[in-house]
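User: Okay, second chain of the day. Same drill as before: sequence in, structure tokens out.
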Amino acid sequence: MNGIHIARRAAGSSNYYFADKLAEIRRLIAAGHDVINLGVGSPDLAPNPGVQAAISGDMSTEGAFGYQPYRGVADLTRRFSEYLSDVFNVDLPPEGIVPLMGSKEGCGFLALAHLDAGDGALVPDPGYPTYSSATRLAGGEVLPYALREETDYLPVVSELERTRLDAESRGCAIRMMWLNYPHMPTGTPPDAVRLTEVVVWAREHGILLVHDNPYARILNSAPPFSIMSIEGSSEVCIELHSMSKSHRLAGARMGFAVGQPALLAPMFKVATQFASGSWRPLQHAAIAALDADEDGIAEANGIYAARKVAALELMSTLGCRVDGHQVGMFVWAKAPEGRDGNMLSDALLDQCRVFITPGSVFGSQGQGHIRLSLCSPVERIQAAHERIKTSFAPHHED
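Assistant: Same drill. Structure tokens below.
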């Protein structure tokens, strides 16, 4: 029998790292091991009580299980628009907003809308792996740009320009650049001055900037930042927002893209081919969360802050170095001198049954780092710390 053909875009892709790692952890748990998972950024805190009430109140009404408008119910885009204005000081009409089932699908839709085969996309290293995956699956070429401690984990325009010229000399046109501040995994806060330089450069060369912005409300003492607040950004920028982290709605898959309507139009064309509007009760739940959750965000941040204290103590015991200016829901740490982040992560899982993500998952610049999530109760972080103090036998790799 002839074999079934597999497209190169699928054959050349690996599973998402956490899909395989979580399967490994489930096998360990099934074998009777108590694994403390400090690796995945899936919020464990409950959403605002009004969320559940909105779901239960709408799910029994007429039309709740029917197809929904591609741009969501009218009140949803209106409320997203008000949220942008109230929280980010950015004024966009509802027509400048496209609801998404989380911002992750927006990454895929944008890559498909703006990359032809062989086109280049600038991808942060370290950075969210989906930026690279979306680029490759669309047939584009991943062009990493290094984010280094010595340049404050921010893009350097002169380096971007060298990459552009090199790509151009090979016949590769750069069409997109992925950005993410507050940055995951390093926790770097946004720097409006440095990002303005990037916006100016992108405008000069007609490059779409996609700013992924899910962490603006997590342990960030500065006013929430939107790249849309930068002068001239509307010509070249689309921003992705997610309610997964800020409003603890990760499983509900609610997010949205914002930008000038004409700039959003190609993504919307692609989205209508693959997705319909999300379940109406979830849309009403998102509205309820936006209407009532400012106190909930503050409460959640208080819990994350206590967890961060425990996480920093754990990192200190490991001998890791952490930048104290990090924001967001992770702790990014430099492994002790002579230690490899992958081997450190594996050793912690093997010896202590504690999982902390190796930094290499996020790119070559993540080598020698690990990332701890603040999405576990403080008691579990402290328990992991105790295991490390009593069971971990560090050694240096050659």
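The radius of gyration is 21 Å.

User: Thanks, on to the next one.
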